[in-house]
């Protein structure tokens, strides 16, 4: 789940444990919230809410803090996963159930209604009236019950006719499933390997881009792996870097693209393809030779 929800007031054990671990990491790093914001590109106010347990953090933010503090992220991400499951369970428990008095509530398909309702209706017709056989209200109730049975029988006939019509010309086989609807993403200038070597801004790949992996070379340089699902491509970016620092983006197909800081303190690479089942990563190096890389990103494993 990508949404960020409130933690305080309804938090589970895992969410509280996660906030405690983030606070411990923040204290151990000696970094202020402003410094965390500079090095991870998340807002200072967001870090304050996440670390103090006021709001549930994104998974990428947890991983970026772990990597910034040179701590293996696996344990923190395991706690995040458990906390996210707790939030899903809690959200499911708050959903209202359909009222029991409505015999059709919660059933949207004619077939389900046709198999579940007739037995109840027929049983009601055979049962004796609650106020005795001689009650004056019994004929009226029997009349209403007869109308209900007639409606159910009609529903069964309609459902059967629909099923028979669906099988005409197909030998009784199940009808083909309806194609899924694909929501169009932003208009882009390239896709996949067609993006390689091109500028992500000019191709509009930044329209839906997200930072999927981060890393750093202490004390300042921050590296990011940027990914666009619409372009099916990725690129590398470094910030807070000195002149002469280099950034390289690579994929498991052997493609790579690089750039170097000629002036100012940041630079980004051209695009490379981000294979759906392949890995992509970014490395950076300082002029004096110190180097570091992000973790691997595989698009098909992130959904």
Which tags fit this structure?
4-stranded antiparallel beta sheet, 303 residues, 9 strands, alpha+beta, disordered N terminus, 5-stranded antiparallel beta sheet
How would you describe this protein?
- The protein is of the alpha+beta class.
- Helix content is 36%, strand content 16%.
- It has helices spanning 13-29, 33-40, 44-51, 59-68, 74-93, 110-126, 138-167; strands spanning 210-217, 221-228, 233-239, 246-251, 256-260, 267-268, 272-273, 280-285, 291-293.
- Strands 1, 2, 3, 6 and 7 form a five-stranded antiparallel beta sheet that branches.
- It is globular and about 55 Å long.
- It starts with 12 loop residues before the first helix and ends in a 10-residue tail after the last strand.
- Residues 1-10, 95-140 and 166-172 have low confidence and may be disordered.
């Amino acid at each position: 789940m990508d949404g960020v929800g409130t933690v305080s007031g309804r938090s589970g054990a895992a969410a509280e444990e996660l906030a405690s671990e983030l606070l411990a990491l923040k204290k151990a790093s000696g970094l202020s919230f402003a410094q965390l914001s500079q090095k991870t590109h998340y807002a200072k106010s967001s870090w304050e809410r996440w670390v103090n347990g006021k709001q549930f953090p994104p998974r990428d933010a947890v991983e970026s803090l772990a990597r910034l503090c040179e701590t293996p992220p696996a344990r923190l991400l395991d706690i995040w996963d458990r906390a996210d499951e707790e939030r899903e369970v809690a959200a499911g428990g708050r959903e209202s159930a359909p009222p029991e008095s409505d015999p059709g509530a919660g059933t949207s398909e004619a077939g389900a209604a046709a198999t579940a309702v007739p037995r109840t209706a027929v049983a009601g017709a055979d049962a004796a009236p609650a106020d005795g056989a001689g009650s004056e209200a019994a004929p009226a109730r029997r009349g209403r019950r007869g109308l209900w049975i007639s409606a159910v029988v009609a529903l069964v006939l309609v459902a059967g006719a629909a099923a028979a019509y669906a099988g005409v010309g197909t030998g009784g086989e199940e009808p083909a499933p309806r194609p899924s609807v694909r929501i169009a993403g932003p208009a882009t200038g390239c896709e996949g390997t067609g993006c390689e070597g091109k500028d992500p801004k000019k191709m509009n790949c930044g329209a839906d881009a997200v930072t999927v992996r981060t890393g750093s070379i202490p004390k300042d340089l921050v590296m990011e792996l940027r990914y666009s699902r619409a372009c099916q491509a990725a690129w590398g970016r470094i910030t807070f870097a000195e002149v002469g620092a280099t950034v390289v983006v690579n994929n498991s197909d052997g493609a790579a693209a690089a750039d170097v800081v000629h002036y100012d303190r940041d630079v980004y690479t051209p695009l490379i393809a981000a294979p759906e089942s392949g890995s992509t990563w970014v490395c950076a190096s300082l002029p004096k030779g110190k180097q570091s890389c992000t973790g691997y990103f595989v698009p098909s494993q992130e959904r």
